[in-house]
Amino acid sequence: MHVTNVGGSLTTAVCLSLIAWSVRVLRSAKHKDRKQRTTSSSQPTVKLNRQTYGVLSAKAFWMLVRTKPVPYLLLDVRPATDSSSGVVSQLSERLSVLHILPEELANLLRNRNTLWAKKFPDVPVPSLKTTLIFISTHGHSSSHAAALGTSLGFMRCSIVDGGLAAAVPLAHFDTPDASSPEKSISLSFDAVLLLLETVRDNGNALGLVILDIRRFDERALYGKLEGSVHITMDHLPKALGMSDEDWLRSFRFHKPSSDNLILLHSRSHEAAAWAKQLLSDAGSHNCHCYVDGAYAGPDGTVRNYEAYGETEAPPEPVAMGQTVTFDRTSAERELLDRRIAIHVE
Q1: Report field, pTM of the whole predicted structure over 0.90
Q2: CATH 3.40.250.10 in the chain, residue ranges
Q3: Domain covering 183-337, topology
Q4: Which of 5, 14, 121, 134 has the fewest C-beta atoms under 10 angstroms from its C-beta?
Q5: Distances from the Cα of 107 to the Cαs of 37, 53, 149, in angstroms?
Q6: d(CA 23, CA 28)
Q7: CB burial class (10 A; 0-12, 13-18, 19+) of residue 53?
Q8: What is the pLDDT of residues 193-209, one digit of tens each?
Q9: Regarding beta strands 261-266 and 98-99, do their DSSP bridges make them parallel or antiparallel, or are they unpaired?
Q10: Dist. CA 139–CA 131, nearest whole Å
Q11: What tens digit of pLDDT does each residue of 266-296 get?
């Protein structure tokens, strides 16, 4: 700022110069403060809203760490002053979590491309689509951390309802097979075909919703069940906390309710079992799974494909037959055993 004193006294000139100098100092201090706030490692204030991140029950969390239905990172955000019991700390160490102090979290996530490798050299840098599970003793610190992560653009943040303390009993009584999904939970292809036929004939009086939770590449390469809707497995924890309006806006179909008969289509027993647990926690208990790669192509040929990882080459489908036929008697008996009433005439 330049001040010109025309015809004024020396005192006036000095006062104006001091004012100009003060303005420059204040501007410089404001700029420095803004820069410090941008790069500061302190955790900003964020509005807590459960709809912005997923909330896992202790059982769903334990199924996740035991069966690994989706890739994820466990971030322990307990503060340094946390005085939790030894069993909680032992569980944290047992799960091989990544420890991040709450006051370091914002800076680490913002500048992950430069800071992450220095703090966790053996762990890949998370992307905005990485599933992040924040944990703390009772869930208070993790709630703030998940809200912060969501505000920074991470789309798949979740916490454990009740924190690590709620999972301690499950860990204590855990056995190697306790959380393993049962392959018997899956409906057969015959039963699924009978369900689809029933829906076509009676206008879906069953209220059937077929949730395809496979990856986008599987659905695109190997087809889909007739009338199915799609939501990937890693979206479910957050999505189930959405309102009906937000769900419809995000996924372009109505959110299933507790009144619906839900059929989960997956190629992984682990993913199907975990999704069933998430839906049960959300109040949808009439839920069944179809874990198979059988599908009918445009030419009417029934084919099957083997499960494969996201980074693996897609397998060639194997033809099973030329027509879509099924054993009606066996399918009726199976649905009856599952207490699925189709009122077959």
Answers
A1: no
A2: 50-172, 183-337
A3: Oxidized Rhodanese; domain 1 (3.40.250)
A4: 121
A5: 10, 20, 11
A6: 9
A7: buried
A8: 999 999 999 889 999 99
A9: unpaired
A10: 17
A11: 999 999 999 999 999 999 999 999 998 888 7
